[in-house]
Design brief:
It comes from Kribbella sancticallisti. This is Cupin. InterPro entries: RmlC-like_jellyroll (IPR014710), RmlC_Cupin_sf (IPR011051). With 215 residues, this protein is mainly β. It is built from no helices and 18 strands. Strands 3-4-10-5-8 form a five-stranded antiparallel sheet, with no helix packed on it. The chain is globular and about 60 Å long.
Length: 215
């Protein structure tokens, strides 16, 4: 991470970089998961990404992204349950322009960036290559990101419903988008997670598959 590093803006001004998120929720050799939370009018500090990352939206508000190199600002309007996959990018900052809190989960893919650990990766012989839900029936799931490196699905169980999801031959994460129970769970290849039944319908879950490990 580069927080605390001083860089120079085009006009010669020194800028001290900050963290890329508000706090770290989960960290291992594969991923680092941040919370980014901005109140109305609040701006995140200038920061730099050294690893590709996935953004999962929990609470939406109009935002814009400024670039230290002077490139035109990017306007953002995200949807709860939606997701964006981004490569490493130049120094930038995010500002909440709306009147509601903005909140996301930002997953750094450490194996694809400058912080790769080189930790060996093994899969048991009995692990199925693709992820799947256990049991019959139609599951209310849709794919919101489908890239060679990562796939993100959004599933929204109805009140009282529960599903068990099993990842394929690659690690994955289950991110609860319910702001009252905002858990992040990391799964090893072939691991499973049962989405808990809730008394009311919530914003659902994002299922993040690290598919760059797929054979």
């Amino acid at each position: 991470m580069t927080a605390g590093t001083t860089v120079q803006a085009p006009d010669g001004t020194d800028v001290v970089l900050g963290e890329i998120g508000t706090r770290v929720l989960l960290k291992n050799s594969r991923v680092r998961v941040w919370e980014v939370a901005l109140e109305p009018g609040e701006a995140q500090g200038w920061h730099l990404h050294h690893n590709p990352y996935v953004v999962l939206c929990l609470a939406t508000s109009p935002c814009h992204m400024d670039w230290l190199d002077g490139s035109p600002a990017r306007q953002l309007s995200e949807t709860v349950g939606g997701s964006v996959y981004r490569p490493v990018s130049p120094v930038h900052m995010l500002t909440n322009d709306g009147d509601a809190q903005y909140q996301n989960r930002l997953i750094e893919l450490l194996d694809l960036g400058e912080e790769a650990s080189g930790e060996p990766y093994t899969v048991a012989d009995d692990v199925q290559p693709e992820s799947a839900f256990d049991g019959p029936g139609e599951i209310p799931v849709k794919t919101v990101v489908d890239e060679p490196d990562v796939r993100v699905q959004h599933v929204t169980p109805d009140a009282g419903e529960s599903y068990t999801w099993r990842t394929g031959a690659y690690p994955a994460l289950v991110v609860d988008l319910d702001r009252s129970t905002p858990t992040v769970t990391y799964l090893e290849p072939g691991g499973s997670y049962t989405l808990p039944a809730k008394p009311t319908r919530t914003s659902g879950y994002n299922l993040v598959e690290l598919r760059y490990y797929s054979s």
